[in-house]
Amino acid sequence: MGNFMQTQQANALLDTAKANIEKAQRLIQGRTTPHINTKAMLGRTNATLFEGQMNSAQRACVLGFMFVHAMFVMLGMTVPLQYLAYVLATTYHETGRTMKPIEEWGKGQGHSYGEPDPNTGQTYYGRGYVQLTWLANYAKAKAVVYSRNWQQGVIDFVNAPELALNPFYAAQIAISGMMAGWFTGKKLSDYLQLDGSFDYQGARAIINGKDKAEQIAAYAIAFETALYLAIGTDIERSVIQRGSTGDDVRELQLGLGLNPDGKFGNATQTALIHFQQQHELNPDGICGSSTWTAFEKEIYGL
Protein backbone atom coordinates (compact mmCIF):
# COMPACT_ATOMS: atom_id res chain seq x y z
CA MET A 1 0.00 0.00 0.00
CA GLY A 2 2.85 2.39 0.89
CA ASN A 3 4.57 1.94 -2.50
CA PHE A 4 1.23 2.37 -4.29
CA MET A 5 0.58 5.66 -2.47
CA GLN A 6 4.11 6.89 -3.21
CA THR A 7 3.65 6.06 -6.89
CA GLN A 8 0.32 7.92 -6.97
CA GLN A 9 1.91 10.95 -5.30
CA ALA A 10 4.87 10.88 -7.69
CA ASN A 11 2.55 10.66 -10.71
CA ALA A 12 0.52 13.59 -9.36
CA LEU A 13 3.73 15.62 -9.00
CA LEU A 14 4.69 14.70 -12.56
CA ASP A 15 1.31 15.84 -13.92
CA THR A 16 1.56 19.10 -11.96
CA ALA A 17 5.10 19.73 -13.21
CA LYS A 18 4.04 19.22 -16.83
CA ALA A 19 1.07 21.59 -16.39
CA ASN A 20 3.30 24.22 -14.78
CA ILE A 21 5.82 24.02 -17.63
CA GLU A 22 3.04 24.50 -20.18
CA LYS A 23 1.84 27.54 -18.22
CA ALA A 24 5.32 29.03 -18.13
CA GLN A 25 5.84 28.41 -21.84
CA ARG A 26 2.60 30.25 -22.63
CA LEU A 27 3.67 33.18 -20.49
CA ILE A 28 7.14 33.30 -22.02
CA GLN A 29 5.90 33.46 -25.62
CA GLY A 30 7.57 36.35 -27.40
CA ARG A 31 10.61 36.44 -25.14
CA THR A 32 14.06 35.57 -26.41
CA THR A 33 14.64 32.57 -24.14
CA PRO A 34 15.01 29.22 -25.92
CA HIS A 35 12.18 26.72 -25.61
CA ILE A 36 13.33 23.58 -23.78
CA ASN A 37 11.75 20.48 -25.31
CA THR A 38 10.67 18.31 -22.36
CA LYS A 39 10.64 15.05 -24.33
CA ALA A 40 14.22 15.54 -25.47
CA MET A 41 15.38 16.63 -22.03
CA LEU A 42 13.83 13.63 -20.31
CA GLY A 43 14.83 11.16 -23.02
CA ARG A 44 18.50 12.13 -23.03
CA THR A 45 18.68 12.49 -19.25
CA ASN A 46 17.04 9.11 -18.73
CA ALA A 47 19.61 7.47 -21.00
CA THR A 48 22.72 9.18 -19.64
CA LEU A 49 22.03 9.60 -15.93
CA PHE A 50 19.33 7.10 -14.96
CA GLU A 51 20.32 4.06 -17.05
CA GLY A 52 16.94 4.12 -18.77
CA GLN A 53 15.10 3.51 -15.49
CA MET A 54 13.98 7.06 -14.64
CA ASN A 55 10.97 6.96 -12.31
CA SER A 56 8.10 9.41 -12.01
CA ALA A 57 9.60 11.24 -9.02
CA GLN A 58 12.86 11.79 -10.90
CA ARG A 59 10.96 13.02 -13.96
CA ALA A 60 8.89 15.36 -11.81
CA CYS A 61 12.05 16.82 -10.28
CA VAL A 62 13.70 17.52 -13.64
CA LEU A 63 10.48 19.00 -15.00
CA GLY A 64 10.07 21.04 -11.83
CA PHE A 65 13.52 22.58 -12.24
CA MET A 66 12.70 23.32 -15.88
CA PHE A 67 9.54 25.11 -14.78
CA VAL A 68 11.35 27.17 -12.15
CA HIS A 69 14.01 28.10 -14.70
CA ALA A 70 11.29 29.17 -17.15
CA MET A 71 9.51 31.13 -14.42
CA PHE A 72 12.69 32.96 -13.42
CA VAL A 73 13.42 33.87 -17.06
CA MET A 74 9.85 35.11 -17.52
CA LEU A 75 10.34 37.29 -14.45
CA GLY A 76 13.38 38.89 -16.06
CA MET A 77 16.17 36.96 -14.35
CA THR A 78 19.26 35.83 -16.26
CA VAL A 79 19.75 32.13 -15.62
CA PRO A 80 22.11 30.55 -18.19
CA LEU A 81 21.51 26.91 -19.06
CA GLN A 82 24.87 26.05 -17.47
CA TYR A 83 23.48 27.24 -14.13
CA LEU A 84 20.50 24.92 -14.50
CA ALA A 85 22.79 22.06 -15.53
CA TYR A 86 25.00 22.49 -12.49
CA VAL A 87 22.11 22.84 -10.05
CA LEU A 88 20.58 19.65 -11.47
CA ALA A 89 23.93 17.87 -11.16
CA THR A 90 24.25 19.01 -7.55
CA THR A 91 20.72 17.85 -6.81
CA TYR A 92 21.46 14.50 -8.47
CA HIS A 93 24.50 14.04 -6.23
CA GLU A 94 23.15 15.45 -2.97
CA THR A 95 19.94 13.39 -3.09
CA GLY A 96 21.69 10.16 -4.05
CA ARG A 97 19.98 10.21 -7.47
CA THR A 98 16.50 10.06 -5.91
CA MET A 99 15.84 13.68 -6.95
CA LYS A 100 13.70 14.10 -3.84
CA PRO A 101 14.18 16.87 -1.24
CA ILE A 102 15.82 15.46 1.87
CA GLU A 103 16.52 16.36 5.49
CA GLU A 104 20.08 16.54 6.76
CA TRP A 105 21.19 13.28 8.33
CA GLY A 106 21.40 13.84 12.08
CA LYS A 107 19.35 17.04 11.77
CA GLY A 108 22.27 19.31 12.56
CA GLN A 109 23.51 17.37 15.57
CA GLY A 110 26.84 18.77 16.69
CA HIS A 111 26.25 22.11 14.97
CA SER A 112 24.81 25.25 16.52
CA TYR A 113 22.18 25.41 13.77
CA GLY A 114 20.96 22.04 15.04
CA GLU A 115 19.65 23.67 18.23
CA PRO A 116 16.18 25.27 18.38
CA ASP A 117 16.22 29.02 17.89
CA PRO A 118 15.25 30.77 21.16
CA ASN A 119 12.90 33.18 19.41
CA THR A 120 11.08 30.96 16.90
CA GLY A 121 11.49 27.57 18.54
CA GLN A 122 12.40 26.15 15.13
CA THR A 123 15.56 24.28 14.17
CA TYR A 124 17.30 25.31 10.96
CA TYR A 125 19.15 22.17 9.97
CA GLY A 126 19.60 21.20 6.33
CA ARG A 127 16.56 20.64 4.15
CA GLY A 128 15.90 20.57 0.43
CA TYR A 129 17.62 19.46 -2.74
CA VAL A 130 20.63 21.45 -1.57
CA GLN A 131 20.85 21.58 2.20
CA LEU A 132 19.54 24.94 3.43
CA THR A 133 20.93 25.64 6.92
CA TRP A 134 20.94 28.51 9.45
CA LEU A 135 18.13 30.91 10.30
CA ALA A 136 19.64 33.66 8.13
CA ASN A 137 19.37 31.50 5.02
CA TYR A 138 15.80 30.46 5.80
CA ALA A 139 15.03 34.18 6.07
CA LYS A 140 16.67 34.79 2.68
CA ALA A 141 14.54 32.02 1.20
CA LYS A 142 11.41 33.60 2.65
CA ALA A 143 12.29 36.88 0.96
CA VAL A 144 12.91 35.53 -2.54
CA VAL A 145 10.90 32.33 -3.08
CA TYR A 146 7.67 32.60 -5.07
CA SER A 147 4.40 30.94 -4.10
CA ARG A 148 2.37 28.88 -6.58
CA ASN A 149 0.50 32.12 -7.32
CA TRP A 150 3.85 33.72 -8.11
CA GLN A 151 3.82 35.97 -5.05
CA GLN A 152 7.15 36.68 -3.45
CA GLY A 153 7.84 36.87 0.27
CA VAL A 154 4.76 34.97 1.46
CA ILE A 155 6.25 31.52 2.11
CA ASP A 156 7.28 31.62 5.77
CA PHE A 157 10.30 29.34 5.96
CA VAL A 158 11.34 31.01 9.23
CA ASN A 159 8.34 29.76 11.19
CA ALA A 160 7.73 26.67 9.06
CA PRO A 161 11.19 25.51 7.90
CA GLU A 162 9.79 22.15 6.75
CA LEU A 163 8.37 24.01 3.73
CA ALA A 164 11.90 23.88 2.31
CA LEU A 165 11.16 20.22 1.55
CA ASN A 166 8.40 21.16 -0.90
CA PRO A 167 9.81 20.35 -4.39
CA PHE A 168 8.63 23.63 -5.96
CA TYR A 169 10.22 25.69 -3.21
CA ALA A 170 13.29 23.47 -2.94
CA ALA A 171 14.06 23.99 -6.64
CA GLN A 172 13.84 27.77 -6.23
CA ILE A 173 16.04 27.64 -3.14
CA ALA A 174 18.66 25.58 -4.96
CA ILE A 175 18.83 27.91 -7.96
CA SER A 176 18.52 31.19 -6.04
CA GLY A 177 20.86 30.10 -3.26
CA MET A 178 23.57 28.92 -5.63
CA MET A 179 23.22 32.08 -7.72
CA ALA A 180 23.49 34.33 -4.66
CA GLY A 181 26.14 32.41 -2.71
CA TRP A 182 24.06 31.50 0.34
CA PHE A 183 25.92 28.28 1.10
CA THR A 184 29.65 29.08 1.09
CA GLY A 185 29.80 32.59 -0.34
CA LYS A 186 30.73 31.24 -3.77
CA LYS A 187 28.11 31.68 -6.48
CA LEU A 188 27.37 30.35 -9.94
CA SER A 189 28.48 33.51 -11.74
CA ASP A 190 31.98 33.03 -10.30
CA TYR A 191 32.44 30.04 -12.61
CA LEU A 192 30.97 31.34 -15.86
CA GLN A 193 33.93 31.97 -18.16
CA LEU A 194 34.41 34.85 -20.59
CA ASP A 195 34.09 32.50 -23.56
CA GLY A 196 30.68 31.31 -22.33
CA SER A 197 31.94 28.00 -20.96
CA PHE A 198 31.47 27.00 -17.33
CA ASP A 199 33.96 25.67 -14.79
CA TYR A 200 31.88 22.76 -13.57
CA GLN A 201 34.67 21.28 -11.49
CA GLY A 202 35.55 24.50 -9.69
CA ALA A 203 31.86 25.22 -9.05
CA ARG A 204 31.74 22.51 -6.39
CA ALA A 205 33.06 25.21 -4.03
CA ILE A 206 29.55 26.73 -4.10
CA ILE A 207 28.40 23.86 -1.88
CA ASN A 208 31.26 21.82 -0.47
CA GLY A 209 34.83 22.70 -1.37
CA LYS A 210 36.29 20.10 -3.73
CA ASP A 211 34.37 17.05 -2.49
CA LYS A 212 33.43 14.83 -5.48
CA ALA A 213 34.03 17.84 -7.73
CA GLU A 214 35.13 15.87 -10.79
CA GLN A 215 32.26 13.39 -10.51
CA ILE A 216 29.64 16.13 -10.18
CA ALA A 217 31.21 18.00 -13.10
CA ALA A 218 30.62 14.91 -15.25
CA TYR A 219 26.97 14.87 -14.18
CA ALA A 220 26.70 18.56 -15.08
CA ILE A 221 28.10 17.98 -18.55
CA ALA A 222 25.51 15.24 -19.09
CA PHE A 223 22.70 17.56 -17.99
CA GLU A 224 24.12 20.38 -20.12
CA THR A 225 24.21 18.12 -23.18
CA ALA A 226 20.58 17.13 -22.58
CA LEU A 227 19.60 20.79 -22.26
CA TYR A 228 21.38 21.74 -25.48
CA LEU A 229 19.69 18.88 -27.30
CA ALA A 230 16.36 20.04 -25.86
CA ILE A 231 16.75 23.56 -27.30
CA GLY A 232 17.53 22.14 -30.73
CA THR A 233 21.32 22.44 -30.67
CA ASP A 234 23.30 19.68 -32.36
CA ILE A 235 25.13 17.51 -29.85
CA GLU A 236 28.03 15.15 -30.41
CA ARG A 237 26.72 11.65 -31.01
CA SER A 238 28.41 8.37 -31.83
CA VAL A 239 27.74 6.38 -34.98
CA ILE A 240 26.29 3.23 -33.44
CA GLN A 241 25.66 -0.19 -34.87
CA ARG A 242 25.56 -3.84 -33.90
CA GLY A 243 28.09 -4.39 -31.10
CA SER A 244 28.02 -0.77 -29.89
CA THR A 245 27.34 -0.03 -26.23
CA GLY A 246 26.67 3.03 -24.10
CA ASP A 247 24.34 5.94 -23.54
CA ASP A 248 23.62 6.70 -27.20
CA VAL A 249 22.53 3.09 -27.67
CA ARG A 250 20.34 3.35 -24.58
CA GLU A 251 18.73 6.57 -25.81
CA LEU A 252 17.99 4.96 -29.17
CA GLN A 253 16.46 1.96 -27.42
CA LEU A 254 14.27 4.16 -25.23
CA GLY A 255 12.99 6.05 -28.26
CA LEU A 256 12.24 2.84 -30.14
CA GLY A 257 10.46 1.27 -27.18
CA LEU A 258 13.10 -1.38 -26.47
CA ASN A 259 14.73 -2.63 -23.29
CA PRO A 260 17.31 0.10 -22.56
CA ASP A 261 20.25 -2.17 -21.71
CA GLY A 262 22.71 -0.05 -23.69
CA LYS A 263 23.80 -3.00 -25.85
CA PHE A 264 23.19 -2.88 -29.60
CA GLY A 265 22.09 -6.40 -30.47
CA ASN A 266 19.67 -8.14 -32.81
CA ALA A 267 16.50 -6.53 -31.42
CA THR A 268 17.95 -3.03 -31.62
CA GLN A 269 19.22 -3.59 -35.15
CA THR A 270 15.85 -4.94 -36.32
CA ALA A 271 13.95 -2.03 -34.76
CA LEU A 272 16.39 0.50 -36.21
CA ILE A 273 16.10 -0.94 -39.73
CA HIS A 274 12.32 -0.74 -39.43
CA PHE A 275 12.59 2.90 -38.29
CA GLN A 276 14.90 3.70 -41.21
CA GLN A 277 12.51 2.10 -43.69
CA GLN A 278 9.59 4.09 -42.29
CA HIS A 279 11.52 7.33 -42.73
CA GLU A 280 12.94 6.57 -46.19
CA LEU A 281 16.50 6.25 -44.92
CA ASN A 282 19.11 3.74 -46.00
CA PRO A 283 18.05 0.66 -43.96
CA ASP A 284 21.57 -0.39 -43.06
CA GLY A 285 21.01 -0.79 -39.32
CA ILE A 286 23.62 1.87 -38.59
CA CYS A 287 22.59 4.98 -36.68
CA GLY A 288 24.57 7.87 -38.10
CA SER A 289 23.88 11.58 -38.47
CA SER A 290 20.91 11.32 -40.86
CA THR A 291 19.23 8.67 -38.73
CA TRP A 292 19.85 10.63 -35.55
CA THR A 293 18.28 13.70 -37.18
CA ALA A 294 15.20 11.70 -38.12
CA PHE A 295 15.10 10.14 -34.65
CA GLU A 296 15.18 13.53 -32.90
CA LYS A 297 12.45 14.87 -35.17
CA GLU A 298 10.18 11.84 -34.84
CA ILE A 299 10.71 10.92 -31.18
CA TYR A 300 11.23 14.35 -29.63
CA GLY A 301 9.62 16.70 -32.11
CA LEU A 302 12.79 18.72 -32.59
From TrEMBL:
Transmembrane segments: 60-85
Sorted UniProt keywords: Membrane, Transmembrane, Transmembrane helix
InterPro entries: Lysozyme-like_dom_sf, Peptidoglycan-bd-like, PGBD-like_sf, PGBDSf
Pfam families with a match to the protein in the record: PG_binding_1 (PF01471)
UniProt-listed Gene3D superfamilies: 1.10.530.10, PGBD-like superfamily/PGBD
Domain Peptidoglycan binding-like: 253-294
Protein name: Peptidoglycan binding-like domain-containing protein
Protein's organism: Vibrio parahaemolyticus
